[in-house]
Amino acid sequence: MRHLIDPMDLSVQEIDDLLALAEDIIANHDKYTKVCEGKKLATLFFEPSTRTRLSFEAAMMELGGNVLGFSSADSSSSTKGESVADTVKVVSCYADIIAMRHPKEGAPYLASLKSDAPIINAGDGGHNHPTQTLTDLLTIKREKGHLGDITIGFCGDLKFGRTVHSLIKALSRYDNIQYIMISPEELEIPEYIKEEVFEKKNIAYEQVRTIDEVIDRLDVLYMTRVQRERFFNEADYIRLKDTYILDMPKLKNAKPDLSILHPLPRVNEIAVEVDDDPRACYFRQALNGKYVRMALIMTMLGLTGQ
Ligand code: NCD
């Protein structure tokens, strides 16, 4: 039995196969509507979510399967003091596959040691978010036609943003990617990403403080919100939260085929006026998340289309 805890749990070939399956699901949706009949997905969300939980549930429903679960720690027995390990041990008696989000880094990994069903990490603290990474990769592939040979700018909270950490790890295995990190000093990517990904693999990256100085070079701009819930004090959050606001004047020097991604939810970092620009991909990206999760559920359950 395999779990998906870290994006590096998947080989490049497995990622390419998942993206190809997601694209086939998009093209031939009807072929897949009964694939998961009789199967159950449990979504155990100890931390808030809109897209990830609902797209997992929609994905399972569109495959003909059923869903059960909870959407906040308050509505589970963790309020009575039950350990994550016990919760998962029990839920794995009821469900065939489990998607789990938790505020503590490593919680889905610990759960996977006890679970009798495959566990998918749906986000653990500031650490990893492998299914958002699959969503992001599918979006880059569909928008650009390929995953290598791009200049990508990551902007915002690169310290606490788990989607950034996971996407950097996954992209580090594709060729000829230029990385530009756009953040305030306090929100730079963590040392372990610098050391374990960039330095270990001899990948060059730039660190800059403004969007303006690099916007004309970017093929992909990955915007992120400042992760309020992971700050130790509110004053720092308030000081940093509006550091970057992408609006139409900021896009003046951008390439005509720039792809703007954002894992969402957005707070202020992208002005609503940008939504109507064809370069804004973030709502298409959210839709891709459902298809890639359909591909993932099928693959982890060992099922194929009819
Ligand atoms: C992200 C997350 O939960 O890390 N959201 C998501 O899953 N689409 C990004 C965020 O919360 O900022």
In short:
The protein has 306 residues and is of the alpha/beta class. The chain is built from nine helices and nine strands. The relative contact order is 0.16.
What is the terminal separation in angstroms? 23 Å
Average predicted confidence as pLDDT: 96
Q: What does the main sheet amount to?
A: 5 strands, parallel
As a whole number of angstroms, the C-alpha radius of gyration is 19 Å
Q: How many strand units?
A: 9
How do the helices and strands follow one another from N- to C-terminus?
Answer: HEHEHEHEHEHEHEEHEH
Helix tally? 9
Shape: globular
Strand order of the largest sheet: 7-6-5-8-9
Helix and strand composition category: alpha/beta
Bound compounds, each kind once, are:
N-carbamoyl-L-aspartate
**Percent helix:** 25-40%
The poorly predicted ranges are none
> What's the assembly state of these chains?
single chain
Query: Per DSSP, what share of the residues sits in E-state strands of 2 or more residues?
Result: 15-25%
Write the layout of secondary structure elements.
Layout: H1 12-27, E1 40-45, H2 51-62, E2 66-70, H3 84-94, E3 97-102, H4 107-114, E4 119-124, H5 130-144, E5 150-155, H6 162-171, E6 177-182, H7 191-199, E7 205-208, E8 220-223, H8 234-240, E9 259-261, H9 282-300
Parallel strand pairs: 1-2, 1-3, 3-4, 5-6, 5-8, 6-7, 8-9
Helix pairs in contact: 1-5, 1-9, 2-9, 3-4, 5-6, 5-9
The structure holds N-carbamoyl-L-aspartate (NCD).
The site of N-carbamoyl-L-aspartate has 11 residues, from helix 2 and helix 6.
